Amino acid sequence: MAFNDSLSDMLARIKNAHQANKVSTLCLKSKLNMNVLSVLKDEGYIRDFKNVEERKGVDSIKIDLKYYNGSPVIKKINRVSKPGIRIYSKISDLNKPYGGLGISILSTPKGVMSDHQAKKNNVGGEVLCEVFWCRELQKIQLKYQMMSSAHLKKVYFQLKVN
């Protein structure tokens, strides 16, 4: 079976594994998948990932998923740029996904990185996917309209703890 888009396949496997409350999932190994997973790990969306040899000559990646209070850390993960329709963005035009409570993962000339890292490095690129972690965004935004995204994240986790 030939895959045109291994990244979309990996994102779908992560979504499905979260819906089934699995601890881990497997996906095909590719350089792009490894780079996206390293960004997800650095941003705290997954626990870990590692290479697994299924059989001779066939490598996979085992992704250890992350949960917070029994619910998945990743609420939404969407592919933005697809093989048929590539989406590129300058760093000045890049929007904050989900009101700043999510991240965009970009493929830039300096490598695959989150939108925060891309702004620090002042580079744009192809918007690969968006990741979102907060289910109660609308309630929080209505209650705390004047707060920055960093403050909204703190409020969200305080609500989860209480």
Write up this protein.
This protein is of the alpha+beta class and about 160 residues long. The longest helix has 14 residues. It folds into two domains: about 60 residues, Ribosomal Protein S8, Chain: A, domain 1; about 55 residues, Dna Ligase, domain 1, CATH 3.30.1490.10. The mean pLDDT is about 85.
CATH topology of the largest domain: Ribosomal Protein S8, Chain: A, domain 1
How many helices?
5
Characterize the main sheet. Answer: 5 strands, antiparallel
- Considering DSSP H and I runs of 4 or more, what fraction of the residues is helical? 25-40%
Strand content: 25-35%
CATH architecture of the largest domain: 2-Layer Sandwich
Stretches with pLDDT under 50, minimum 5 residues: none
Number of strands: 10
Q: Name the average pLDDT.
A: 84
- General form: globular
Quick summary:
By secondary structure, this protein is α+β, with helices and mostly antiparallel strands. Helix content is about 35%, strand content about 30%. It folds into 2 domains: about 5-70, Ribosomal Protein S8, Chain: A, domain 1; about 75-130, Dna Ligase, domain 1, CATH 3.30.1490.10.
